[in-house]
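Deliverable D2.4 — example input (structure tokens):
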């Protein structure tokens, strides 16, 4: 009997040592991953965007004698409501929101982006915005938990317009808790299962100054569809992607998928109402995208449709 007890006690002690040791290793590895300093280039662009072309010619708003700041503000509002899901994680008023609140994995709250108390962007210049949004790196150089890969192809003009819009919002007083990992999250970071955008992005390549000309074209559609690649992948053939347990794999958006047989009208309906031509509804998290779809213009959805239809028919990889 005593020997059995001794063996059990010995095993329990061993398990404790493994668990504690693993935890200490993971928490040290996570701390050093998060404490790294990542160098990025310095950029400069005017905020608000003056709406003057590269040759000094006046942009649409100037030609129509609209105040350029007002034009920038309207473009920025559209970008945040229809094209980029900033509000999904930073809150409807951009005064702070939730990306994930799932201890013992992690808590990642989108910080307050407004000019109120606790707003993290109050002293931001163009380089700070560039570093956070297009590189996934904080002002202090550490990698951010924010997925930024989809924002990589955002042009200077779009980023400036988004900033003009954010700065016009009513200031919200709200201090948001910094990113925290629990024991499971630490294991995921330590083993590399949770990756940071900063490690997947180039940090010294130039960004485009302007987006491609807006219109129902494949080129403009490719620009808009960059935000779909986070879940549908850059090949757009869908498959599994990081997310919450229970989420389905993303659909194949190349002509090899069901979409290959849909008309433009049918595609718009899926994007705005979440209902497919066969009457079935799309599941979470695609439902989170419907707000963007509703705010997109007919022309924007047409451009995405044309781009997707122009892709080579590709089977979803295993
Ligand atoms: C999927 C959720 C998500 C989306 C979408 C998102 N963010 Fe974030 N963002 C976060 C989280 C979480 C943090 C804090 C990360 C950290 O501290 O590691 C953050 C941090 C930031 C920061 C602060 C960086 C710093 O120095 O602390 C800025 C600025 C920012 N986001 C801007 C934006 C803008 C602009 C958009 C839209 C173009 C956007 N974010 C979209 C989740 C998101
Ligand atoms: C947060 C992840 C995510 C993002 C971002 C996202 N999708 Fe999806 N999408 C999904 C998932 C998951 C499904 C599968 C839903 C289901 O099985 O019901 C899906 C399904 C779809 C479908 C239905 C296709 C079919 O064959 O049934 C279309 C169309 C679609 N997405 C288009 C887009 C477009 C266009 C964008 C970018 C504007 C986009 N999605 C962005 C996750 C996403």
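Example output (designed residues):
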């Amino acid at each position: 009997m005593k020997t059995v007890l001794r063996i059990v006690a010995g095993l329990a002690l061993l398990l404790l040592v493994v668990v504690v040791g693993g935890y200490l290793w993971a928490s040290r590895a996570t701390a050093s991953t998060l404490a790294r300093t990542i160098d990025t280039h310095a950029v400069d662009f005017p905020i608000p965007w003056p709406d003057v072309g590269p040759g000094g010619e006046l942009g649409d708003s100037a030609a129509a004698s609209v105040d350029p700041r007002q034009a920038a503000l309207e473009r920025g509002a559209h970008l945040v409501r229809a094209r980029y899901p900033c509000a999904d994680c930073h809150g409807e008023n951009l005064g702070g929101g939730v990306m994930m609140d799932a201890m013992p994995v992690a808590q990642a709250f989108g910080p307050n982006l407004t000019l109120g108390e606790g707003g993290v962007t109050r002293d931001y210049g163009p380089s700070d915005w560039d570093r956070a949004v297009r590189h996934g790196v904080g002002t202090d150089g550490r990698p951010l938990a924010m997925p930024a890969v989809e924002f990589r192809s955002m042009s200077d003009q779009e980023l400036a317009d988004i900033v003009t819009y954010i700065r016009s919002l009513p200031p919200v007083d709200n201090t948001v808790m910094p990113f925290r990992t629990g024991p499971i999250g630490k294991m995921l970071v330590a083993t590399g299962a949770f990756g940071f955008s900063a490690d997947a992005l180039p940090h010294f390549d130039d960004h485009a100054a302007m987006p491609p000309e807006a219109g129902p074209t494949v080129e403009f559609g490719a620009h808009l569809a960059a935000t779909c690649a986070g879940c549908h992948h850059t090949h757009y053939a869908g498959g599994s992607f990081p997310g919450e347990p229970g989420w389905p794999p993303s659909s194949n958006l190349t002509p090899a998928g069901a979409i290959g047989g849909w008309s433009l009208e049918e595609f718009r309906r899926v994007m705005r109402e979440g209902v497919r031509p066969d009457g079935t509804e799309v599941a979470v998290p695609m439902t989170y995208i419907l707000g963007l779809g509703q705010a997109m213009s007919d022309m924007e959805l047409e451009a995405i449709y044309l781009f997707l239809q122009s892709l080579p028919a590709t089977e979803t990889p295993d």
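The two ends are 52 Å apart (CA to CA).
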